[in-house]
Amino acid sequence: MKISCDREQLLQAFQTVAAVAPSRSPKPILQNVKLDVTPDGASLTATDLEVGIRHAVGGVDVQAPGSVVLPVTRFGSILRESADQTIHIESDGNGATIRGERSRFQLPAENPAEFPPVGGFEETSYYEVPARLLRELIRRTVFATDNESSRYALGGVKLEFDGEAITAVGTDGRRLAKMVGPLGKQGEPAAVQQNTIVPTRAMQLIERAIAPTDAEVQLAVRGSEFIVHSPRATISARLLEGRFPEWRKVFPERGVGQQIELAAGPTHAAVRQAAIVTSEESRGIDFTFGDGSLVLAGKAAEVGQSRVELPIGYDGPEITITLDPRFVIDFLKVLDSDKTFTLELKDGESAAVCSTDDGYGYVIMPLARDR
């Protein structure tokens, strides 16, 4: 195997793929990334046997096809530290030689034939979504998942494919994020199970691997495996097992509470200010709406008190609800600062429901006020 390639393009692809390789594994070969070279180009693959990725590499000049297994840490460091625009990689099956203009590295390499296979995207029937939408679906839901819960299903994002819409839902039991977007399809994709729960780590990888400039992304479910294909990368992930909460019951009936329009940027700034004096023992902030203003009040023993006032367009009955500011900030961080959203409140004991005009919904359970 022998290639010359653009270092920066190889580095970007390698960093994305290397995120899959485990830092520790009973199978040492998994701590590597495999480089496959054909006369048509080069691709990198990695897997931890739960999540796999195959990523095309641009800017490659192929002199001889072949494969080589490259150690994540050492090879990644070579790519990052080198200042060369072009690097040359050769392998005779026993090791790899990496050359720059004034540098040369020789690394031992394991047998490429022993590297677990990572499949490509061979489906002829599949779902299709705009790349920008899929990135937004992930960004707006993945933060609400819970990888530390004993409830395995909460460690992923649930996807539902319904007619011409895709719905993504993430929850940790204390808050729930949901986003809906348009869905297309080619052919007749296999019916999707009710519990299509994609691990959080896989969703983060998908968001990273999809370029904002990509047009359409293909999605398919093959047995217990979820597969995503973009122009550059194919990612497969084993679906999580377990019972996902009946999330539709979490969203209360619309119109039963007070509807309050808020600006994301100013609200984000106010919540961050009020949260300065919170602590692990006293984390809640009182949100009081009424008389044309939102007053945020925080209080923690030995830390202090905060009071932040924000003018808003609400003159309805006064409502006070205590919320965890971290959950509110997480929601506001994924919105553009110039965007507005609707907050619906029934009372201080019922869930706060946030929604936007582009299919995004977020529910936060209140904290007890006698904290």
Explain the overall architecture:
- The chain is of the alpha+beta class and 371 residues long.
- The protein has 3 domains: 2-114, DNA Polymerase III, subunit A, domain 2 (DNA Polymerase III, Chain A, domain 2), CATH 3.10.150.10; 126-248, DNA Polymerase III, subunit A, domain 2 (DNA Polymerase III, Chain A, domain 2); 252-364, Roll (DNA Polymerase III, Chain A, domain 2).
- The protein is built from 6 helices and 26 strands.
- It has helices spanning 7-18, 72-81, 131-139, 200-209, 264-274, 325-333, and strands at 2-6, 32-38, 41-47, 51-57, 60-64, 66-71, 86-91, 95-99, 104-108, 126-130, 156-162, 165-171, 175-182, 184-186, 197-199, 216-222, 225-229, 233-238, 258-263, 285-290, 293-300, 304-311, 319-323, 340-345, 352-355, 360-364.
- It has a 9-stranded antiparallel beta sheet.
- α1 packs antiparallel against α2 (72-81), α3 runs antiparallel to α4 and α5 (264-274) packs antiparallel against α6.
- The protein is elongated, with a radius of gyration of 24 Å.
- It starts with a strand and ends in a 7-residue tail after the last strand.
- The mean pLDDT is 92.
- InterPro entries: DNA_clamp_sf, DNA_polIII_beta, DNA_polIII_beta_C, DNA_polIII_beta_cen, DNA_polIII_beta_N.
- Residues 249-367 form the DNA polymerase III beta sliding clamp C-terminal domain.
- This is Beta sliding clamp.
- Residues 129-246 form the DNA polymerase III beta sliding clamp central domain.
- Residues 1-116 form the DNA polymerase III beta sliding clamp N-terminal domain.
